User: Fold this.
Amino acid sequence: MAILFQGTKQQELELKEVIEKHKDQRGALMPVLQKAQEIYGYLPIEVQKMIATGLKIPLEEIYGVATFYSLFSLNPKGKYRISVCLGTACYVKGSGDIFDAISQKLGIKNGECTPDGKFSLEACRCIGACGLAPVMTINDDVHGRLTVNDIDKILSQY
Amino acid sequence: MKSIKDLNLISEQMKYIIDIRKNNTPTDNQYKKHILVCGGTGCTSSNSELILERLNQELQRHSLDDKIKTVKTGCFGLCALGPIMIVYPEGTFYSMVKPDDIPEIVESHLLNNQIVKRLVYSETLTDDGVKSLSETNFYKKQKRVALRNCGVINPESIDEYIATGGYQALSKVLTSKTPDDVINIIKDSGLRGRGGGGFPTGLKWSFAKASESDQKYVCCNADEGDPGAFMDRSILEGDPHVVIEAMAIAGYAIGASQGYVYIRAEYPIAVKRLEIAINQAKDYGLLGNNIFDSNFNFNLEIRLGAGAFVCGEETALMTSIEGHRGEPRPRPPFPAVKGLFEKPTVLNNVETYANIPQIIINGADWFASMGTEKSKGTKVFALGGKIKNTGLVEVPMGTTLREIIEEIGGGIPGGKKFKAAQTGGPSGGCIPAKHIDVPIDYDNLIAIGSMMGSGGLIVMDENNCMVDIAKFFLAFTVDESCGKCTPCRVGTKRLYEILDKITKGQGTMEDLDKLENLCYYIKENSLCGLGQTAPNPVLSTLKYFKDEYIDHIQNKKCTAGVCKDLLSFYILPDKCKGCTLCARKCPVGAISGGIKSPHVIDASKCIKCGACFDGCKFGAIIKK
Assistant:
């Protein structure tokens, strides 16, 4: 389902500023896409088109790069982004079960967003907090030493 | 900063830091005590920022803030006990501190000199006080070279780095060594790449030096992608200047004036500290033009990754810096001849760089005196999984797995039996108990079917299923394969499918032969290191744990109790007290039963999430 692009003039100005700053730099595309995602929260085709024009790079190349890297997203994320670490240290301590339980509870799969736009769920690779395994993050909050039984309580905080 | 004299002046002025924190002798005229709070990712995730904030508030409240200095450091290594703080000069090591503990620590310890025993790391407690951390099992056998400043200095202060001898190596090479001298020192030290491949660093540098070009580049691989490995992140968070200094030395050695650090965007703290460090080095004239009046110019730029594991491969990393899809290129030409922007390039990883300044200062012989015949120096391991002391450890090459797991790591919690240690991440393999006494170095690990990789070391116990672990790693490579070459793109997917079939109890014995043949095919025909090593987790588990595969295929059994399709959950009626907890925990309403009467699980509804199993207080639920 395509979600209507709702970029503002302010966002467009910010993006143009970023493009202006980077356009003479070698290998500018990655830093520009990263900033663009910061501005818009994701990289819809409208934003990719603006970058293509600004950097004079063909749109298909930009699309190729934007879809190659997992941190770039063509779809908007939920208000609360749940990210369950499936790195090895977390996995051997049961983070797979944590992921399944959240998926089951919210009724969404990896990369999806709840219909009300509140939660999105993704599996991530090691965030390096292996001492707290298994770990998940919700936006910038880190929840560690998790068990399946903690999930209801944690989600209810949001 | 123009000369070594300026550098020595700062070093002299800041010497008290080393005195109080390393030698336990207070020579700081203003601050009688230094309190170090860990600001690594692990401890930050468990709220160490708040602890530091509370600490500063309390110190202020008691008018101690002009007598006691608080410092936010990088990782101490013992992440399992985080958040951690240390009080110097006495060296009291407080672990698992909560913000609410701070008033007690300030009043009891700092005002009345009574340490708060309940919060002190139990291993350091003695009858008459506390003993030094270096005498504990976790630290005793460690030898810190790459991590030497982590948890000691404030990573956001260039002066503190200089106090520990920082930038002396750069000044030494710029004022008294030729580029060839530098390369020879690194060659003689025997240093090999710490990122996985183990290629001799000095040799790599000499190739790049020999390539003629108007522009050359020095790159740092900080795209630490192996899940469970976090040493590079900890170095960047705890001691970012060491990487900057080493890259400048590499630039001088090969004749490059521009460097790039390619770092994972998932490491925001490391990125921020490295940015701060680069700016400080620029302000001090340690980056930029005419460093130490030597006519040597060197600049450094940060580039962020965007979550592609393959970009840890050197040619893919460079393609990504150039702004393209991070796909690898065939080699030759090697990066030393034609690398970033088609110019000669040296690429080393963070931990490799962290060794360089020490080698220059202490000499090649000093470095080569540590380790084994072909693997010199130390190696940092990220110890994780089923182990008591999760964290970062640095040991001389040649230390055995047993020493790391049983002595330093404190063994496996819950009295469980050791089954395997996984090294090398998705490129490595599982080492079974029978090889636990093999001295760890590059060559020995390869000989037993694994590899060093970047140094992740995940311990597994009897509750881990080895077929499932192999499947886990293949799921990872399927996801991360860039798709450029067919053996890797299609091959890893097929491997995954066969493994999936086996974990569902639908495998056949012929599948095992297919699996093995396909593994060798992928290894031989893939373009880059990702595909060439992707089958290792399968091959090593097939080699050492074949009986588990056979158990899944012939008996449809997963003894470890992991593979859900082969499991069922049951309630033992004689143990069930009818407390109804499991019925309330069950997310799908599969458990029924009245109060104080035994409950039953409806197998057709059960999704095998294990919530009931984890929740039962009477051990009445079993899985088999």
About this structure: Chain B touches chain A through 58 residues (CB under 8 Å). Chain B has a mean pLDDT of 94. The longest helix of chain B spans residues 486-503. The first strand of chain B starts at residue 33 and ends at 38.
